[in-house]
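Me: I keep going back and forth on a fold encoding question. No explanation is needed for now; the record alone will do.

Assistant:
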Amino acid sequence: MEFKTLRNIENSFKQIRLFTFVFAVLCFAVVGVVVYKSYEFAEEQRQKIYVLDNGKSLMVALSQDIAINRPVEAREHVRRFHELLFTVAPDKNAIESNVKRAFNLADQSAFDYYKDLQEKGYYNRIISGNIQQRIEVDSVVADFNTYPYPVRTYGRQFIIRSSNLTVRSLITTCTLVNSVRSDSNPQGFTIEKFNVTENKDVETVER
């Protein structure tokens, strides 16, 4: 009888050890799943950008792979540079403000182009003649298979006088290199070897 009782006690201990082992394994499994899911959730949150809309509402914008957005950012960088450099009002301060912002997006070649026009009296004629100039960029063609990225830009200049409107065909070339992002250069590119290859009148409309 004693022997049977001892065997029962031993079997009970075995069952307890088995249950304890199974329980421990289940605990480890639950902890593992929780840690994995927590890490997965944290990674998902890192892929989101929270944008404060006018200090009122919080919107979530999904971020994408930077390699996918890079060509779009490059074209926007070139487009913005052209808008700043070729949009001219008959106001010296406005001209200087625009070109300074354009210089943040490019190297010395952009300054050389501006300086050449300035020495030829181009901006003085704009101011004295009360002429407005703006640009519409039609397309930005870039080759992202080679680095630095070669870029060709096609656009139209509109030179607005009190008596007429002149439309000019504008074609420029440059190369793009990666640089540090900043408030003045949000896309993180620098334009190099900027050159105007065509800038000619295509139409004049009397006003």
User: Anything to note?
Assistant: Residues 56-63 have pLDDT under 50 and may be disordered. The beta strands are 48-53, 57-62, 132-142, 149-160, 164-178, 189-206. The radius of gyration is 33 Å. Residues 2-50 form one domain.
